[in-house]
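Reviewer comment 2.1 asked that we show a complete input and output for one of the modelled complexes. We chose the oxa(dethia)-CoA case, as it is the one discussed in the main text.
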Amino acid sequence: MTFAHITGWGMSVPETILTNDDLSKMVETNDEWIRDRTGIRERHIVRGGQTTASLAVEASLKALQRANLHPADIDLIICSTSTPEHIFPATACLVQDRIGATKAGAFDLSAACTGFIFAVNMAAQSIRSGAIQNALVIGSETLSRFVDWHDRGTCILFGDGAGAFVLQASDMPGGILSAVMHSDGSGGDSLIIQGGGSKHPTTEATVQAGKHFIEMDGNEVFRFATRVMAQATRETLEIVGIQLDDIKWIIPHQANIRIIAAAARGLKLPMDRFIVNLDRYGNTSTASIPIATVEAAEDGRLQPGDRIVLVGFGAGLTWGALAAEWTGPLPSERKVYPRRYRLWARIRSILLRVVRFIEGAIWGRGS
Ligand code: UT7
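Response of the prediction step:
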């Protein structure tokens, strides 16, 4: 029997920090309100040429380094994001090219803040079926590029960042144990970017109407979130027959400390069983769960053998949870350096573009 283990992890956040006091100079808000109502103190924001793909590449290279896995050994890359570089090509393909994952199929997954749970589950299912050996799963967002910086209902919440897991096949029991995925499209309007898709293609009018910004009914999303977090956690544990007491850490989507507190009450667990870092990053959507997991793994709170639940909710509406036993890198004889391989990936990418250009010159363009 094949199991899917989390063997590598990495994260990346931009250096630039936006504090609550900074925000109070931009919209009518203040540090006390934001901390009381959300728990957020500051968030990281991309600048200049930083994008969803550049954060994803950084997080991925760290995850590959930790797993000691060569980029060319990846079979599948799933990038969960709601803020892709383009409608197409998929951000996952840009990452594939930049890290030199020459063998990997790559696609994006759109399930908003729940996306990372869905993506890990899809990768784990592919591994367990025997179809693939190694997967790279990324959650990456640059929500700051889609926020209306005049809307105090949303701009105080979101931050940018990326987290990545490497998943690998092994016959050793453990790894991803169970998952549940849920959706309710009837709530789609409560958290939405209206413009830029096929319903409202970008025009001067859509831009003037601000349809390219995030719109949210905060109270409705809040009520929904407090309903589903505990429920999804219980469901995924039921599937695998594990008691809550056997779970070392619950790693929730980092949206609002009051939502996490409601989940804790619903599960009758103390808050110290939850990994929380939203005070420093805000809501990084699909990146929030992997970033919180990476921090816990890096500072030693998360140890091999620990059982954890990842649980999230978001636009769609979507929600889900996943139970796992933390593994860490698989034993390996050789030592790989994914970062060094990046130069070769760059050269390879340039050569492929040159070949395509020469082919175009020989065969003619558009004929
Ligand atoms: O990944 C999923 C993403 N979304 C979420 O997780 C959102 C979930 N919802 C929430 O986190 C909360 O609903 C918010 C943080 C968005 C809002 O908090 P709230 O406690 O639900 O506030 P509210 O919208 O009910 O507003 C309460 C008051 C209002 O004033 P009045 O009508 O009582 O005078 C608002 O106008 O707070 C006011 N207010 C603010 N004041 C200062 C709303 N936003 C702000 C603000 N600064 N940024």
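The first helix runs from residue 20 to 24. We note this here for comparison with the apo prediction described in Section 3.2.
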